[in-house]
Amino acid sequence: MTGALAPFDHHRGLLFSVAYQMLGSVADAEDVVQDTWLRWSAADRGEVADARAYLVRIATHLALDRLGSARARRESYVGPWLPEPLLTGTDPVATAPPPADPVAAAEVGEQVSLAVLVVLETLSPAERAVFVLREVFGLPLAEVATTLGRTEPAVRQMAHRAREHVQARRPRFDTDRRAQREVTDRFFAACAGGDVAELLAVLAPDVVLVSDGGGKARAALRPIAGADKVARFVVAVAAQGLELADLRIEVAEVNGGPGIVAWTGGEPLLAMSLVVVDGRIEQVLLVRNPEKLAGLRHTS
Question: RNA polymerase sigma-70 region domain spans which residues (predicted)?
Fold first, then answer.
């Protein structure tokens, strides 16, 4: 069993990332990783030439199996559905240099924002798998084709279709991390101080807020559009939070982008992901469903 553990542990982060970006769920991704371990530990590993490719193939198929049932559950979900947020750092300005080794880079992948994960929900399961493996992790076309049991021309066509689909729908965002941080800090201070005028200064006129409570926490049942309505909604949310004991709020990196997270009594309370464009916030994604906040404890 020791011989099985070392290669699995080496690729555990990759397996979690693939499953998470396939499913948009921290809990489901962790279950996929556990099930991958069970299959790997029971396999005849002497016949495995490439442990990483073998493990990714298992995890991808397990994620595809779960994706169908997950989408069926979302049809009866209360209010808007958002992916589970993942705390990827406590300082949205600091950023580590990308790995120089292509293999190491594939292990890390790209941080996919909450907004882009929402877009990935509009792909077919197979297109999503191709996009995650090919575009996010940069795996070779031949490996993706083998993983999915498809021909290389078919995978190439799916990759092209998925890439165009995502590019047409993904939000623009500022790449200057310090500018993002400045806007996020202003937004945070205005929320905490109940300053609607300052919020209107940092929100784009056509800003949209989507909140996910899942029927388990207070949230708007429909997206809220317009700076004035969004400002008053977030001020009301902040006022309710400030009444709680042991409240801790931080500006943090959520899914690789600017965000705000809150805890009370050591338990996650909410996560907010912001899309900043040209110095103003165009999208606010607010997750309050307590069952979706495990990723505020997860730093893999």
Answer: 8-71
